[in-house]
Design a protein that fits this description.
The complex is a heterotrimer of chains A (184), B (399) and C (265). The termini of chain A are far apart. Chain A folds into three domains: 45 residues, no CATH class; 51 residues, Orthogonal Bundle (Helix Hairpins), CATH 1.10.287; 69 residues, no CATH class. Chain A is an all-alpha fold and 184 residues long. With 399 residues, chain B is mainly α. In chain B, α3 crosses α14. In chain C, the strands form five sheets. Chain C has a four-stranded mixed sheet with strand order 11-3-13-12, with helices on one face. In chain C, strands 5-4-6 form a three-stranded antiparallel sheet, with no helix packed on it. About 11% of the residues of chain C have low confidence. Classes of the chains: A mainly alpha (184), B mainly alpha (399), C alpha+beta (265). The interface between A and C is large, with 56 and 77 residues.
Chain lengths: 184, 399, 265
């Protein structure tokens, strides 16, 4: 120790170094305590996150889940050209209808004038980019004029929404006309 | 949602649906701005301590305090921006080694440590003297600040001097890392044609140096005027010279980047062209380049190439510094916001206008930029800015 | 393509007939209880393994542009499944119109959610090519998003799905900036990042992703490449042009496209 000074020449340096070391050790322990469970086991992430995502409830259950309780509609739907259209797209998700095996809400059913925009969304020729091999495209009012139908008619007056060519086929059969070429 | 609808109305061309929203807002413009000033201010100090540029001696201590004031506030815009700021500690707990942004936690802390330590060692004689002269709470405060040491012998001071030398030498690459990684946060994003260039960390670093020097010039002139003291003319001229030199480099690299893109005209060029001559035209060509780069270059030319009196330097230098500080802010805006205005479709862009009163709005940005000045004021109460102040025996500073 | 589709149609019809009109005992082997709702098991061999991850499976997602009619049903189903806030999209559909001067016109009104209800009247030249492109997460093998996440909140699971840990995401938006395909966004309610997950929670239960289920024209196909009977296996082993988006980014996306044109970005 030098005369006149209370602390040694290196005292402050030693104290700084000790403080830093203490902070680093404490920090290491705190970090270990605060790390999420098993972090890093499978990669730089929390493994529980995979299960969190897997345990999410599905809301849309696909048409088969609807057919279980709606067998009559199933019968019509599965043989028509709309068989690839999911029930829940027009009627809402299963999860909004049934919870814990109990029906708690009724599903929306589109009727009347509201039907036309729904059909037109897929079948309108004006949209330009649809591949005609995939789907029948029609334009209005040409479609109605061509079929010699009054132009204020809505789609479901001729087309059963669940099987759009059902009534058309039946009508043609009744009239003794050859069946319309079904699109594959 | 209505905000998105408003932005959609400003969109030109085809913008991906998720690209309508600009995620990195004014707050993220401020963060590199603040860390840039930190790094730049440190460079001023290193020019004295490491490169022995004697004329900068008056600013050696002040520039470190200036850097510290801005460093303490750099986290604020980030916390305001984060969707989940309560989880910000994760940057320290689980930093992803492949993510440039994860460098924020440890690079920032390490650099802050170097800065604080250097300030401690430089000002230790002052702190000891103040401890011995003070009474009551202030005495205890300075006791803690001086690490309860009072040894100011030649041996102790020589040891301090070597440590200061070491810290300032280590501090230079650390300052480069601190702002270089920010540049790499942008430069490493290959998905964005404006950002993805190896020049990005260099441009950010150079504009950081520039903003730091400019900030110090402005603060120095202001403080000297307010306290009615003489401005050291050789110090000012040296600062102006370095500001000018770094600025020429900075401007050259900024122009080189755009020029190279335009010259090579790859498939990304139409999108970039649409951006720079579209929503970014005013803030880039008129703002950043013409006015805020052109004028400082002219002023610099006047100051360097003509014989002039110190009084002229003391007027033109702060003007040039203010313009350059604005230029760096504009540059950060043009990079951060500009890059997001282009859609990744390469076929369209949107327009972004921050509001005054929103969560990441203009008012808050102004408030955040005022914080460091307040911190600097407080630091000035603890540490003397200038070495000819009473009780400011910075004997530890090497000649 | 048409031949294949009608074969699948027959299969599908037969399959449904088998499941629903067959003996309950027999069909129980093919259905999975979800609560007490019986849904057809759509992915063979999934849902009954003991381990948590989809081991031994290699999932593939193929988008067939030639079948997409731009109805937006996939977007509706996806929005419904995840209750995605308005203005943000986990999946969307774009319409491309290319004229005979090689000008490309692209649009995606509200992500295609309402379908494409009008034509474009701002095209002076005759059109040479028109098509729809559904977009969703590309599940890159070298994802930019996983690389840049600062806290490890987005990652590639052991079964190859890039997922997001909602509990750890800090909402910094770096992943949104890094994704070359703009499939990520910040959920304004949860304030964390979100994106299409190829319906991981459904796939783990043996169901198809919601958009695949919903698509009425089989423009989206999903399945296990290790199952040689699956449609994806057949599609990805036929000699035809199979593309990915932005291959020059180096992300090695797992989402494959059939019928993709060079103009699509």
């Amino acid at each position: 120790m030098q005369p006149g000074f209370k602390s040694s020449p290196k005292a402050h340096i030693v104290r700084i170094v000790l403080t830093l070391v203490a902070v680093m050790i404490a920090g290491t322990f705190i970090r270990q305590a605060m790390l999420p469970d098993e972090f890093g086991k499978l990669g730089h992430y929390r493994p529980g996150a995979v299960e969190d995502e897997a345990n999410r409830q599905a809301r849309i259950m696909s048409s088969e889940s609807c057919f279980e309780c709606h067998p009559l509609i199933k019968k019509i739907h599965v043989d028509g050209v709309h068989k690839t259209v999911l029930c829940e797209v027009c009627h809402g998700a299963y999860a909004d209808h049934v919870k814990d095996d109990v029906v708690f809400a009724t599903m929306p059913v589109v009727r009347g004038q509201d039907i036309k925009p729904m059909c037109v969304k897929c079948h309108n020729k004006i949209i330009q980019a649809m591949p005609p091999e995939s789907i029948k495209l029609v334009a209005f009012p040409e479609h109605l004029e061509e079929k010699k139908v009054r132009t204020h008619h809505i789609c479901d007056q001729c087309h059963h929404v669940h099987a759009p060519l059902k009534w058309v086929h039946e009508a043609r059969e009744m009239m003794g006309l050859p069946p319309e070429r079904e699109r594959s | 949602m209505h905000v998105l609808a408003e932005i959609a109305a400003t969109a030109s061309g085809y913008v991906f649906p998720n690209d309508l929203q600009v995620h990195w807002t004014l707050m993220i413009v401020l963060y590199p701005y603040i860390t840039g000033i930190v790094a730049g201010a440190f460079i001023v100090s290193s020019m004295y301590h490491v490169f022995h540029i004697q004329t900068l001696r008056p600013l050696a201590g002040f520039s470190l305090l200036f850097a510290l004031a801005f460093l303490t506030c750099a986290t604020v815009p980030l916390l305001v921006h984060l969707g989940q700021p309560g989880r910000a500690m994760s940057m320290f707990l689980t930093p992803n080694p492949t993510s440039a942004m994860a460098g924020f936690g440890y690079f920032y802390a390490a650099y802050g440590l170097i800065l604080i330590l250097e300030i401690f060692f430089i000002y230790r004689p002052t702190l000891v003297a103040r401890h011995q002269a003070a009474k009551g709470l202030k005495r205890i405060f300075y006791l803690v600040m001086s690490m309860a040491s009072d040894n100011l012998s030649a041996e102790a001071l020589e040891l301090d001097r070597r440590i200061i030398r070491f810290l300032s030498v280590v501090g230079v690459p650390m300052a480069c890392a601190l702002h270089g990684y920010v540049g790499f946060i942008f430069g490493g994003v290959k998905a964005n044609p404006l950002w993805a260039t190896p020049l990005m960390p260099i441009i950010f670093l150079l504009s950081a140096c520039v903003s730091g020097i400019a900030g110090i010039i402005l603060a120095y002139v202001f403080l000297m005027k307010v306290s009615r003291r003489p401005i050291d003319p050789r110090c000012m001229r040296t600062c102006v010279k370095f500001l000018g030199g770094f600025f020429i480099l900075n401007f050259s690299f900024e122009m080189l980047e755009v020029f190279t893109h335009g010259y090579m005209a790859t498939s990304h060029w139409p999108a970039l062209h649409g951006l720079l001559w579209g929503p970014l035209y005013n803030s880039y060509w008129i703002g950043q380049v013409l006015v805020l780069s052109g004028l400082p270059l002219i002023l610099m030319g006047v100051l360097q190439l003509t014989k002039n009196r110190h009084a002229l330097v003391n007027v033109l230098a702060p003007v040039m510094a203010a313009l350059i500080l604005l230029q760096v802010l504009f540059m950060r805006w043009n990079v951060v916001i500009g890059g997001q205005l282009m859609s990744k479709s390469g076929r369209g862009s949107v327009f972004y206008q921050p509001a005054w009163l929103e969560k990441e709005g203009i008012l808050l940005a102004v408030v955040i930029m005022v914080f460091p000045i307040m911190v600097l004021y407080l630091l000035g109460k603890i540490f003397p800015f200038w070495q000819d102040d009473k009780q400011s025996t910075i004997r530890g500073v090497a000649p | 393509m048409t031949r294949l589709r009608s074969e699948i149609d027959l299969d599908r019809r037969g399959f449904i007939k088998k499941v629903l009109s067959g003996a309950i005992g027999g069909s129980l082997l093919l259905v999975l209880p979800q609560g007490s709702a019986l849904i057809a098991q759509q992915l063979a061999g999934v849902g009954d393994e003991k381990e948590p991850y989809l081991n031994g499976k290699k999932f593939a997602f193929v988008v067939d542009i030639t079948n997409c009619i731009g109805c937006g049903t996939c977007c509706v189903a996806d929005k419904n499944e995840y209750q995605v806030p308005d203005g943000h999209f986990r999946t969307w559909v774009e319409r491309y119109l290319i004229d005979d001067q090689d000008n490309v016109y692209v649009d995606s009104p509200n992500g295609g959610l309402d379908g494409f209800l009008t034509g474009r009247d701002d095209i002076p030249n005759p059109l040479r090519d028109t098509f729809f492109v559904p977009k969703l997460c590309n599940m890159c093998e070298k994802s930019s998003c996983v690389q840049v996440c600062p806290v490890g909140a987005t990652f590639r699971s052991p079964d190859g799905f890039v997922l997001i840990d909602e509990k750890r995401c800090v909402g910094c938006s770096y992943c949104v900036q890094a994704c070359p395909y703009s499939v990520r966004f910040i959920n304004p309610v949860k304030k964390t990042a979100e994106k299409c997950t190829w319906c991981y929670h459904r796939v783990r239960k043996g169901m198809q992703p919601a958009c695949v289920d919903a698509c009425p024209t089989q423009a989206r196909i999903f399945g296990d490449l290790n199952d040689k009977q699956s449609e994806v296996y057949k599609l990805l082993h036929e000699p035809q042009v199979i593309s990915v988006l932005k291959p020059d980014m180096g992300n090695e996306p797992s989402l494959h496209y059939l019928g993709l044109r060079r103009e699509v970005t």
